[in-house]
Amino acid sequence: MREKKRMAGIKKCIAAVLAGILICMAFACGKKTDDIEALGKAVAGLGDDELFAIVEIGAKHSVLLTSDQTYDDKNGNQASIFCDVYYEGEDGEAKKIGTLESLGTAYPIAYDKSGLYTAGGHEVRRYEVDKAGFLVMAEGVYEIYDETGTAAYTRETTDGTETITEKEYMAMVEAYGKATVVNFRYGATDA
């Protein structure tokens, strides 16, 4: 029991130092300090096996991604096909707003200024944080084959589903290909 209390105290101390380092890094990197403070508290509460990344996707606040399922993508990233998404709520606290999952290690979660991407062999989805602070799928494009092997392409948005051209489908695939693979890290030493 005494050892558990001691370890809990050490973990709280490390968490406080980590939150402080994240705030200092925010000043150096130009990130919004309020965002980093809120997200730093969430990072401090992560489990021992959880890695994190803080990304900018064009939302009002920075976005925290966490995962305990990462792999070396052989391009210098600890990538993942699965992560939880946290965002600063109205109360200034980071809250989990969703989970993302791609369909295989060939399709790591990625991001750019327009959102977060997941993908699979015949699909790409882009997610945004809306003005209310919710994670929403902004658009998804899909390649679907009929029984004769003929491809059809569709786009799904919050407004519904529509048929699109192969060129429109490939534009979204290319946007995913140009997006930055999320690089998950442990603690402040890797951030």
Query: Could you say which overall geometry the principal axes of the C-alpha atoms support?
Result: globular
Query: Distance between termini?
Result: 33 Å
Q: Please provide the count of β strands.
A: 13
> Biggest sheet, strands in spatial order?
12-11-10-9-8-7-13
Helix/sheet category: alpha+beta
Sheet with the most strands?
A: 7 strands, antiparallel
- Specify the number of helices: 4
Give the helix proportion (percent range): 25-40%
- Rounded radius of gyration (Å): 19 Å
Low-confidence stretches: 4-31
Range of strand content: 35-45%
* N-to-C order of helices and strands: HHEEEEEEEEEEEEHEH
How many separate domains? 1
Rounded mean pLDDT is: 85
Structure overview:
The strands form three sheets. The chain has a seven-stranded antiparallel beta sheet, with helices on one face. It is globular and about 55 Å long. A hairpin with a 5-residue loop joins strand 5 and strand 6 (94-101). Helix 1 (2-29) packs antiparallel against helix 2 (33-44). The protein is built from four helices and 13 strands. It has one domain (2-190). Mean pLDDT is 85; it is low at 4-31. It has 191 residues and is an alpha+beta fold.
Condensed summary:
The chain has helices at residues 2-29, 33-44, 166-178, 187-190, and strands at residues 51-55, 63-67, 70-72, 78-80, 82-88, 94-101, 110-112, 115-120, 123-129, 135-145, 151-157, 160-164, 180-181. With 191 residues, it is α+β, with helices and mostly antiparallel strands. It has one domain (2-190).
